[in-house]
Amino acid sequence: MLSRKETPFLIDLPNEWVDSVYELxxxxxxxxxxxxxxxxxxxxxxxxxxxxxxASLVDPNNDVALPTSYFVxxxxxxxxxxxxxxxxxxxxxxAFFDQFFADDSWMDYQDMWKDEKFKDLDLFVKVxxxxxxxxxxxxxxxxx
Length: 144
Prior knowledge:
Elements lengths: L8 E4 L2 H14 L1 H7 L2 E9 L2 E9 L9 E8 L6 H21 L7 E9 L2 E8 L3 H11 L2
Antiparallel strand pairs: 1-2, 2-3, 3-4, 4-6, 5-6
C-alpha cells in the first residue's frame, strides 16, 4: 500500500496531469538525466483524506536497478483547492531532486513517513528504493 493512511483509494490522478509533471521534471533535470541514463516515473493518487504524489527516478535500461522514489503526501479536507495542493506537492518534489542531483553521494533514504513544513503546509515525505510501478501492479493483482 502506497498511502500513508488507512483510507479508501478513490482515483488515480488524470494522465494529463501526470504527463505534465513528467515533462516538467524531464525538462528541469534533462542534463543530469542524460548524464546518468535515468528517467522519471510519476504517480498520483487521491485517497479519501489524502493526496499522494510519487516521483521515481529509474534506470529505463535496467529493470533490476533500484529506483529512488520520493513520496509526498498531504492531508485532504473537503473544499480545499486541490490545484494549489498539487502544485505545492510538485514544488516539494523539485526541491528534493534539486538536493539529490546536487550531491553525487546522496544516500539519505528513509522508509518511514516524516512530517515536514513546506510553504507553510504540513507535508509528509519519505524517500525509498521502492519500485512503485511494481507495487501498484501487486496491489492490483491482490485486489482483483
